[in-house]
Design goal:
39% of the residues lie in helices and 15% in strands. An eight-stranded parallel beta sheet has the order 7-6-5-4-3-2-1-8. The protein has nine helices and eight strands. The chain has a single domain, classed as TIM Barrel. The structure holds pyridoxal-5'-phosphate. Pyridoxal-5'-phosphate binds next to β8 and α9. Belongs to the pyridoxal phosphate-binding protein YggS/PROSC family.
Length: 251
């Protein structure tokens, strides 16, 4: 329509970058989901730690989440994570870095040197290398044994049957501290269906504890199945999409 003047709001945006209000809101929403599920389960919400999974997102997003109070971050790819850890070295004392991706044995050294936790220990050889390569000036590396709880051919992780034997060996390594179990269950439709593999992991966890292993960590639950995981006893939930948004793997 001719003659209509379109007046654009050209006021400069000062302060917040575009993503920050979203990020604060998303973090709040995730904390609320955890609190609600904990309430239903009769658990103390403080017994569930939030690991923000930042893979594919830039260091600035991690810095923004840190400014919102988030302290633990999960990364999947060795090279990408080292670049970000370096870029955020000024925050090192107040960030906990968790490696959660598949780990090849020729890439264990930088992980042993730069991370606080590894959730994805899926065979003894990886654990042995991490222990040998953990620098002496650092505390033992916290690790979880990854269990292929849904029995998927494509998934890494020890079988539930071999978990006790491998866990005993991992627990005996000098520079590792075996904290518990981790799983990535097959996606399932509703909360009831989602609970089954989480329950199976919790039962395995209890069995290992009954065998004398001092475990305190059940790493399970992602953006789509957080509630099911908390209902079944998760102590760390690993949340990416619900905090940072959808991932872009195109580059
Ligand atoms: C990517 C990833 C997550 C986070 O998944 P979302 O569905 O984005 O929350 C959690 N755990 C592992 C092992 C992952 O690789």
């Amino acid at each position: 329509m001719r003659g209509v003047r379109i007046i654009r709001n050209v006021a400069p945006r000062i302060g917040n970058q575009g993503f920050m209000p979203d990020l604060a809101h998303n973090l709040d929403a995730v904390h609320q989901r955890i609190a609600l599920a904990a309430q239903v389960a009769g658990r103390d919400p403080r017994s569930i730690a939030l690991l923000a999974v930042s893979k594919t997102f830039p260091a600035e997003d991690i810095r923004a989440a840190h400014a919102e109070g988030q302290r633990a971050f999960g990364e999947n790819y060795v090279q990408e994570s080292l670049t970000k850890i370096e870029a955020l070295s000024d925050l090192r004392a107040s960030i906990e870095w968790h490696f959660i991706g598949p780990l090849q044995s020729n890439k264990t050294r930088p992980v042993a040197e730069h991370f606080d936790w590894v959730h994805s220990v899926d065979r003894l050889k990886i654990a042995q290398r991490l222990s040998e390569q953990r620098p002496d000036n650092l505390p033992p590396l916290n690790v979880c044994l990854q269990v292929n709880i849904s029995g998927e051919a494509s998934k890494s992780g020890v079988t539930p049957e071999e978990a006790l034997r491998v866990a005993r060996e991992v627990a005996s390594l000098p520079k590792l501290r075996l904290r518990g179990l981790m799983a990535i269950p097959e996606p399932a439709g509703d909360v009831e269906q989602q609970r089954a593999p989480h329950r199976a992991l919790r039962e395995l966890f209890e069995k290992l504890r009954a065998e004398g292993l001092e475990l305190d960590t059940l790493s399970m639950g992602m953006s789509g199945d957080l509630e099911a995981a908390v209902l079944e006893g998760a102590t760390i939930v690993r949340i990416g999409t619900a905090i940072f948004g959808a991932r872009d793997y195109s580059h």
